[in-house]
Structure formats: structure tokens, C-alpha cells
Amino acid sequence: MKNKLYILVAIAFVAGTVLTSCNRPDKKGETSQEKIQEAQQNVAEANQALKDAIEQFKKESAEAITANEKKHG
């Protein structure tokens, strides 16, 4: 459950960062293309974190099921 919360927070942070940066002029002089590339990188990192969390959840679930089957089976 904590993993889902962390993923949701990460996605919300990325979305908030992208949305707030779209409405103000950037003082660094980054081009739109650089912003797009950065946003794509953030999305890729969030997707990887989600995949890792899913794999961890599957592993923990499988271990819990196995332990439960041994206990009750």
C-alpha cells in the first residue's frame, strides 16, 4: 500500500512540475524542446519506479501466498 502511495505522489509531483512550468517564462532560457525532453525523462523515471513497485508487490505477494499455503496446507 505504501508503494502505491509513493508512486501516486511521484506522478503527482511530475505532473505538477510540468503544469506549473508551462505557465511562466523560464529565467534559465531553456527551450521548449529541452523542457519536453526533461518531462519525458521524468515520466520514464516514474514509469520505471512504478514497474519496480509492481515487481516488488508481486514478489511480496507470492512469498505471502507461499507462506500461507505452507501454514494452512
Report on this structure.
The radius of gyration is 19 Å and the shape is rod-shaped. It has one domain. α1 packs antiparallel against α2. It is mainly α. The chain is built from two helices and no strands.
Q: Could you tell me the mean pLDDT?
A: 84
Low-confidence stretches: none
How many domains? The number is: 1
Q: What oligomeric state do the depicted chains represent?
A: single chain
The helix/strand series, from N terminus to C terminus, equals: HH
Give me a quick take on this structure.
The chain has 73 residues and is an all-alpha fold. It has helices at residues 2-22, 32-72. The chain has one domain (2-72).
Protein topology:
Elements: H1 2-22, H2 32-72
Helix pairs in contact: 1-2
